[in-house]
Amino acid sequence: MVCMVKRSMMIMALPLVAILGVAGCAPPFAKETLGKVDRSISFRELQRAPDTFRGRWVMLAGVIIEARNTTEGTSIVVLQRPMDRRGRPYETDATEGRFIITTDRFLDAAVYHRGRRIAVVAEVAGGKILPLGESEYQYPIVVAKELHLWELSSGPQFFFGIGVSKGF
């Protein structure tokens, strides 16, 4: 009898697990927005010749270096990182450079702070050469259409479970 109850509970739990699993893998951006992204543009190409891609939409990800608020809105300097298909930047030292996200909205620098992981779907606005240390650096400039901050991480965490537990 106990086995039948456990089996019934597992059968009832499977659809819930499937729904939660699919929801957990959904991209943070609207489907319509993602449909406008030109995935053939690599960050390396964008970094080399940003004006070539003016008006095209890209999805980029990385780690925030700094956020600046101005009277026109906010600009965020980001260290590019490779990303998964959902736009989550990998925790790696691999990078192909920096880019700047602009938006006409006020984004609080206390939230959009150094070290925070970010992904953006944006329209390429061109490039801008700015000082970086004692040299000059060409930053691709993108205008945010949708932004996503990834949760703060304290290391790998895995949660998965099905079943019933008896407390001690």
Annotation keywords:
globular; 5 strands; 168 residues; 3 helices; 5-stranded mixed beta barrel; alpha+beta; OB fold (Dihydrolipoamide Acetyltransferase, E2P)
Explain what this protein looks like in three dimensions.
- The protein has 168 residues and is of the alpha+beta class.
- It has one domain: OB fold (Dihydrolipoamide Acetyltransferase, E2P).
- Helix content is 20%, strand content 35%.
- The protein has a five-stranded mixed β-barrel with strand order 1-2-3-5-4.
- The longest helix is centred in the first third of the chain and has 23 residues, at 2-24.
- The radius of gyration is 21 Å and the shape is globular.
- Mean pLDDT is 85; it is low at 13-23.
Oligomer: single chain
Largest pleated sheet? 5 strands, mixed, barrel
State the order of secondary-structure elements, H for helix, E for strand.
HHHEEEEE
Strand order of the largest sheet: 1-2-3-5-4
Shape: globular
> Any idea of the CATH class?
Mainly Beta
CATH topology: OB fold (Dihydrolipoamide Acetyltransferase, E2P)
SS field, number of helical segments: 3
Q: Can you give the helix content as a percent range? A: 10-25%
Helix vs. strand class: alpha+beta
> Whole-number radius of gyration?
21 Å
Poorly predicted runs are 13-23
Q: Kindly state the number of beta strands.
A: 5
What do the pLDDT scores average to? 85
CATH architecture: Beta Barrel
Number of domains: 1
